[in-house]
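User: Please fill in residues for this 220-position structure.
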């Protein structure tokens, strides 16, 4: 079985949720059959959206470089990063380590509907990483209005600030999700949005896609 390193802390609750899902989807029947996992919850990681918008990624990339070194020393076989926005720097990440890093955005794009809306942070919207990966898969990226982007980004940061991720607490987001998912597919492209309990065949949770691939990779 392969050893996993989760480079997380973006945010901590999303990282905890990611690991819980990995445990729940594991075929293990006893402790020793679970995936050996190193969790790095780097809560001091600079804000990814601010780094993208400002163009100043030096400190952020230094954090990732140090985290990857810890993974190497520990002996990880592969790495996951449960943060969609940070994947803007994926091409930089793979230059920092020889350890395989699963690409959350690419995996979600492959699973997406042919026509898809993306709910994400301001940084993810501005980076257009989902648009790029969806188009590589010959799928249509459906843009949100500026107001819809505001609702998405605001919802994410309210959850980061400690609000309970219940849809009833976020009526604007709930309405937007219902309306968009009736027209096309939707990707929940932020791990804070993954904390919502959503059952909808037209909605893809990027976190779940990453978790499924993680379990598959570990037990391969």
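Assistant: Residues filled in for all 220 positions:
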């Amino acid at each position: 079985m392969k050893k996993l390193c989760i480079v997380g802390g973006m945010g901590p609750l999303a990282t905890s949720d990611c690991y819980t899902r990995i445990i729940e989807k594991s075929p293990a029947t006893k402790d020793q059959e679970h995936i050996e996992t190193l969790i790095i919850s780097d809560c001091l990681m600079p804000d990814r959206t601010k780094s993208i918008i400002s163009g100043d990624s030096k400190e952020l990339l230094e954090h990732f470089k140090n985290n990857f070194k810890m993974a190497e020393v520990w002996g990880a076989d592969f790495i996951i990063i449960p943060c969609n926005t940070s994947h803007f720097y994926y091409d930089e990440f793979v230059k920092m380590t020889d350890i395989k890093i699963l690409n959350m955005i690419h995996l979600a794009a492959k699973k997406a509907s042919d026509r898809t809306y993306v709910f994400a942070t301001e940084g993810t919207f501005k980076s257009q990483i989902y648009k790029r990966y969806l188009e590589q898969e010959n799928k249509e990226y459906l843009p949100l209005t500026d107001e819809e982007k505001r609702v998405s980004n605001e919802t994410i940061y309210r959850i980061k600030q400690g609000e309970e991720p219940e849809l009833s607490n976020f009526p604007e987001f709930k309405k937007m999700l219902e309306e968009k998912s009736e027209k096309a597919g939707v990707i929940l492209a932020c791990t804070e949005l993954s904390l919502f309990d959503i059952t909808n065949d037209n909605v893809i949770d990027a976190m779940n896609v990453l978790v499924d691939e993680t379990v598959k990779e570990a037990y391969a």
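For context: The longest strand covers residues 4-8.
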